[in-house]
Structures are given as structure tokens and as C-alpha cells.
Amino acid sequence: MGIPVAEIxxxxxxHVMGLLRQVNMVIVGAEAVTSNGGIISRIGTxxxxxxxxxxxxxxxxxxxxxxxxxKFPWDQRDLGFEQHVLDFRTDAASKQPEDAVDYTxxxxxxxxxxxxxxxxxxxxxxxxxxxxxxxx
Length: 136
Known about the structure:
Helices cover 21% and strands 18% of the residues. By secondary structure, it is of the alpha/beta class. It has a domain of 88 residues: Translation initiation factor eif-2b, domain 2 (Rossmann fold), CATH 3.40.50. The strands form two sheets. It has a four-stranded mixed beta sheet with strand order 1-4-6-7. A three-stranded antiparallel beta sheet has the order 2-3-5, covered by helices on one side. It is globular. InterPro entries: eIF2B_alpha/beta/delta, IF-2B-related, IF_2B-like_C, NagB/RpiA_transferase-like. Belongs to the eIF-2B alpha/beta/delta subunits family.
């Protein structure tokens, strides 16, 4: 399609997005899209969304509608499971969990890209109402 794409190492994101201003948009995937239009995704997504918002770069989420979930967390502490991200030890057994996730609220998401088109985060709530009739 001729669209230039660059993968940026995690350690260089703030430099490239904020200082060099060489990024036009951010597109991420999601493990789940919550009923309020937020996302649960790989840890670090929330801070990436915050940075994109700060430097005024659109932040898009590409996710299929089968990932739409009826619940949503209030914040990072309300995901519903322990992740053990902080593991202070002095021995070699300490390591970061590879499958840790975080929550990105809908206020930081420009649009959702789904198989049904590009939509505002409120689209999730509307779709779930159409499917279930209520979210109770």
C-alpha cells in the first residue's frame, strides 16, 4: 500500500515522539476493549497514550469487535487480577512478567479501528447495548 511504517524501540519512544516530532500517529492493539471505550493492552500502552496526548499525536486502537467486553476498570488498580509487576529481590530470580497489561482510558484514545470501520470510543458502548440490550 506504500504506507511508511517504523517500529520504535520502547526506550526511544519519548525521544522520537516528543523531541524529534517524527511520528504522525500511534496505532496499538488491545487484549480487550472495555465497555466505556478504554482498552486493556500490553503494559506500557497507557504511558504511550499519555505521551501521545501530551504531544498531540492521534492514538488509535486496532481491535476486532469480538474483543469488546461488558466490564471496565476504574483505573490501573481495578483490573481484577494480580500482576506482580514489582518484584524486589537481590537474587537472580527476579524478572519482569512478560504478560503484564495496563488499562488505557477512552479519553486518551482518538479512535478505534475495527472490522466495521473507524469509530470513537463510545462506539463500544453502543455496540454492546445492541448486542445485550443492557450492560447490567
